[in-house]
Design a protein that fits this description.
The chain is an alpha+beta fold. Helix content is 43%, strand content 19%.
């Protein structure tokens, strides 16, 4: 018999006084390129995403980050992130979403400081350990073991804390204050009728300068950024609500449902109704 002993008192990860609430778990393979998650944010949920394979480039808070096997991303609530995929950049991931999170010293539903890098790269042994826990969590949740799934969530958060500390991830600095103002403005107004001139007037700059800074800092023109925010928000509503597609279209800024369907299909590769059916039941 080989016996292993606990060596220290248990301390909840991230100093949590109360366990958070597990909202969902998803597991996708590289064929999930049919389900790209376009630019979106969650008001009251944190996402923890482990890249298992493939390669792409994610945008978090408007900044680009490489995404490949072993990359561990943390998306705090209200942080806009873009996870583009497609036939030319397939990505396999495991991810979970949690809410009711209160880490000492941070705002509600933030797992890491606002200025911390949202990603760290794990070693292969670390990746395999976390991968296995995600798989067990997914299997237990699909089997209906919600109580066990919440305990597994705490085990995953413990490893996330340990691995991020070991990676000495450091901090991300975004010195372009005006670029942040652009993103903040779009995040507040993306569902309204868009006009580059109106936006430039609101920010007291020329349309040319506005477009240049937006493209330089986010990789997208202002119109592209608005469109991706709209489609990303529509995806969230399709996944998390039973709202009719026509109402979702209106909520994200489209008066014409046919135009919304066309824009959605162009960005995602399928119609909204097909996405809702495929994503919810086959992710």
């Amino acid at each position: 018999m080989i016996q292993c002993f606990v060596k220290k008192e248990y301390a909840p990860p991230f100093g949590l006084a109360q366990p958070p609430r597990l909202f969902s778990v998803s597991r996708t393979d590289e064929k999930a390129s049919a389900h790209p998650r376009v630019m979106h944010a969650h008001d009251d949920l944190v996402e923890v995403v482990l890249v298992r394979g493939g390669e792409s480039r994610y945008f978090v808070g408007g900044l680009p980050y490489q995404a490949r096997r072993g990359d561990l991303f943390v998306f705090n609530s209200r942080v806009v992130h873009d996870e583009p995929s497609g036939p030319d950049r397939p990505v396999a991931t495991s991810s979970l979403a949690l809410g009711g999170l209160q880490v000492p010293g941070l705002r509600e539903n933030a797992l890491i400081p606002e200025d911390a890098l949202p990603v760290c790269h794990l070693t292969e042994p670390q990746t395999v350990r976390l991968e296995r826990l995600y798989d067990v969590l997914y299997d237990e949740l699909t089997a209906g073991n919600d109580d066990g799934a919440h305990h597994l969530l705490m085990a995953i958060l413990t490893l996330v804390q340990q691995f991020r500390a070991a990676a000495a991830d450091g901090y991300a600095a975004n010195d372009n204050v005006f670029a942040q103002r652009i993103k903040d403005y779009i995040d507040r107004h993306f569902a309204e009728e868009f006009s580059l001139q109106k936006m430039a007037d609101a920010l007291h700059v020329s349309p040319y300068y506005l477009a240049h800074v937006c493209k330089e800092s986010t990789g997208y023109s202002p119109l592209q950024y608005v469109l991706r925010r709209r489609i990303g928000e529509a995806q969230t509503l399709l996944i998390t609500t039973d709202l009719p597609v026509t109402r979702i279209a209106a909520q994200v800024g489209y008066d014409n449902p046919s135009h919304f369907n066309a824009q959605f299909a162009k960005a995602v590769g399928m119609a909204p109704r097909t996405f809702r059916r495929e994503y919810v039941f086959h992710k």
